[in-house]
Amino acid sequence: MSSRPRTANSRRGGVLLEVLLALVLFVSAAMATLSLVDRLIENSYTLEQRRIAADLARSAMARLEAGLATPETLSGPVRPEEGDAGVAAISDWVLDVQTETSPFSELTNVSVTAMLAPGGDVEHPKTSFTLRQLVRLARRQPEPTREDPMSGLGAPAEGVP
Q1: What is the distance, to the nearest Å, from the Cα of residue 13 to the centroid of all Cα atoms in its chain?
Q2: 28 in a structural domain
Q3: At 97, phi and psi to the nearest 5?
Q4: In angstroms, rounded to a whole number, what is the distance separating the alpha carbons of residues 112 and 71?
Q5: Does residue 67 form part of some domain?
């Protein structure tokens, strides 16, 4: 058996094959890394949207507990508060506030759902967060009927000094 001596062409072919194999491995690793980074960015965005939904639901629940709003006034598109820097960020958010009686006197089961619903599509929200809690809903005090500055303070309104 005689072995043929390797020629320059066969060595170049081997080097070319090694370079192509290294290139395929590099491209495969780069594609896997880019896919992972893309998923991480998408998950980060989703997590941020859920955080915003949770903040909106908590804020709505706090407004209900403080008596600053009613379930009827909170349900619907989220309205920015004065001084809110994220006005553009909440334009597609919708609140759904549901109430039902509870077995405890003076407490109401309140469910606040914040949904990211682009174009108002609440049937297929992109993100949502629901907060459920027992709440003592504040009863609205009747407005004073006359211009007596003491009438809202619990002072007698007529004839008592």
Answers
A1: 57
A2: no
A3: -110, 120
A4: 9
A5: yes
SS (H, E, C) the chain: CCCCCCCHHHHHHHHHHHHHHHHHHHHHHHHHHHHHHHHHHHHHHHHHHHHHHHHHHHHHHHHHHHCCCCHHHHCEECCCCCCCCCCHHHCCEEEEEEEEECCCCCCEEEEEEEEECHHHCCCCCCEEEEEEEEECCCCCCCCCCCCCCCHHHCCCCCCCC
* Domain enclosing residue 47, as ranges: 39-135
User: For residue 145, which of 154, 156, 155, 157 has the smallest C-alpha distance?
Assistant: 157
How far out from the chain centre does Cα 103 lie? 31
Q: What is the pLDDT of residues 8-35, one digit of tens each?
A: 667 778 889 999 999 999 999 999 999 9
Domains identified in the chain, total number: 1
Is 94 contained in some domain? Answer: yes
Global confidence as pTM: 0.64
Name residues of the chain where pLDDT drops below 50. 83, 87-88, 155-156, 159-161
Query: Which token pair is 15?
Result: 């080097």
Residue 131 lies in a domain: yes
